[in-house]
Design goal:
By secondary structure, the chain is of the alpha+beta class. It has two helices and six strands. Strand 5 and strand 6 form a beta hairpin. It binds decanoyl-CoA. Its EC number is 3.1.2.2.
Length: about 130
Amino acid sequence: MSKLLKDSNHMCFACSPKNPIGLKLVFEHEGDICRASFIAGPEHQGWNGVMHGGLLTTILDEVMAQWLWSRELSAMTAEMTTRFVNPVPIGAKLTIESRLVANKRRLFLMEADALLPDGSVAAKATAKFMPVKV
Ligand SMILES: CCCCCCCCCC(=O)SCCNC(=O)CCNC(=O)[C@H](O)C(C)(C)COP(=O)(O)OP(=O)(O)OC[C@H]1O[C@@H](n2cnc3c(N)ncnc32)[C@H](O)[C@@H]1OP(=O)(O)O
């Protein structure tokens, strides 16, 4: 296991339980899926009543990264695209799921979806991750 994962003082904005302004995401793994949930509060808004798209991208990024971390693959996001399909209302529970699409040479091609409570898609992301030494 990497030193970063063992370090109880890590301050990842998305996942550390110790970051006072962090999102404190937790992850579950089911087969080939990594999953997290998140409910945006008023402090996460962009447009009135709507979750900020940059934060949504952060969460999609993190859930893809955690798919790799959970398999002890230390990799950083090298490129990412988010398609915002539907606005996320403040207070709505989002389910975010990621999976590996392909591993080509050094690149891990990942994808993730953010789903609204009725199962409709709020946003879809694709990303390329590259291994790094930690
Ligand atoms: C417990 C804690 C858990 C924490 C989880 C946190 C998750 C957060 C996820 C993130 O947001 S990570 C932060 C955002 N990402 C970064 O800060 C990464 C910054 N970029 C880098 O550090 C380097 O550019 C990178 C490690 C991605 C790659 O550097 P390298 O020096 O390893 O690769 P290089 O640039 O030499 O390229 C190697 C090959 O990959 C190719 N390549 C690089 N980027 C590419 C790309 N985006 N798409 C396709 N190919 C790419 C490149 O063309 C080249 O091809 P060739 O070998 O054929 O010449």
